[in-house]
Amino acid sequence: MAAGFWSIAEVHGSKRVSSESEAVGYAVGLMTWVLAGGVFVAAKGATDEMPPWTLCFWRLLIATAVLLPFVRHRFPEMGAFVRAHGLSAFAIGALGWAITQGLMFTALQYTSAVTAGIIFATNPIITLVLAHFVLREGMSPWQVLGSLVAFAGIVVIAVKGSLAVLLGLDFNMGDLILIAAAAAFAAYTVLLKRAKYDLDRLPLLVVLMTGAVIAAFPLFIYELISGEHANLAMKGYLALAYAAIPGGALMYLLYNWSVDILGASRAGGLLYTQMVFTAVLAWMILGEPIEAYHLAGAGLIVVGVVLVTFLTPKAAAPTSTPR
C-alpha cells in the first residue's frame, strides 16, 4: 500500500521544496489515498480468480518496471547503494512489501475490504509502539492512551462488536491475518528507520520493491504449480492492472509529489483518510455493508490517532536526527 511510501518519507524527513500551491498538494495527497483504497477493493473483488501471492508478485514487478524510467539517472547511485547495503535492503523490502502485501491479500479471502482499510489505518500507531521498544523512542502518557484506544478499536472490529465472540475467542481468520500484516509492516518501518539509508525516496522505493519481487517469486511459483490459477479470468487481470499501475506506480508518484509540496509529516497525515475511501468504494463497488461495529471501531481509532499524532512527547525531539 501507499503506507509503504509514507514510511520512507518519514524516515527521510523530507522538507517541502515545491513552490506549488498547498491546495494542489492536498488534492494530490488525497488522490493518493483514494487510489490506495481502491487496491483493497480491487483485490477483494478478484479473490475468486486471483491468488494472493500471484497478485502480490505481479503488482510489485509491474509497478517496479513502470517506476524504473523515473530513476534511470540514479542507477549509478543505486548500484553503489546495493553493493553496500543490498542484503539488508532487500530483506527489509521483502518484509514491508512482499510479506505485508501477501498477508493482506490472503486476509481479503476471509474478511471485507472495509475491515482491511480500517485495520491498516492503525499502521502508524503500531509503528509508534514498536519504535518505543526497539528504538527507545519516547511516548507521552497521552500517546500511550491513544495507542490503547486505537487497539480497542481494532478489537471492536475483530469481534464484530460482539461480546460473545470476544469471550469465546471466535475471531475471523482474515482479521487475525490482517493484524499480522499490520505488525509486519510496523516492523518494516522500524527496521527502515534504524537502517538510516542515505538514498532518496523514489530510488530507495525501487530498491526495496526489487527485494520484495525476489521474495514473492517463490510463493508465486508455488501457487502456479499448485494450480491455484485455474479460475483466473478477466476480473483477475483487471484487478492486477489496477493494483499495479493506478494503485501502484501512479499512486507512489502522486505521493512523492504531495511530499515535495507539503512535507512528509502533513502528506503522511492524510493516510488516515484511506479507511474512509476504502469503506466508501467497497460499499459502492462491492456492495459491502458498513456495519455499526465498523463505525464504532473506526471512531475509537480516530480518537487514538488524534492522541498519538498531536500530543507528542517533549523529550522526543532532541533524539531525532535530521536527514
Quick structural summary:
By secondary structure, the protein is an all-alpha fold.
The residue fraction in helices comes out at over 70%
* SSE pattern: HHHHHHHHHHHHHH
Q: Please describe the biggest sheet, giving its number of strands, its sense, and whether it closes into a barrel.
A: none
Chain-averaged pLDDT: 83
Describe this structure in words.
The protein is an all-alpha fold. It is built from 14 helices and no strands. The model is unreliable at about 15-20 and about 315-323 (pLDDT under 50). Helix 7 (about 140-160) packs antiparallel against helix 14 (about 290-310).
How are the SSEs ordered, and which strands pair?
Elements: H1 3-12, H2 22-45, H3 52-67, H4 75-107, H5 113-120, H6 123-134, H7 141-158, H8 163-168, H9 173-195, H10 201-225, H11 234-262, H12 264-269, H13 274-286, H14 292-310
Primary descriptors:
single chain, 323 residues, mainly alpha
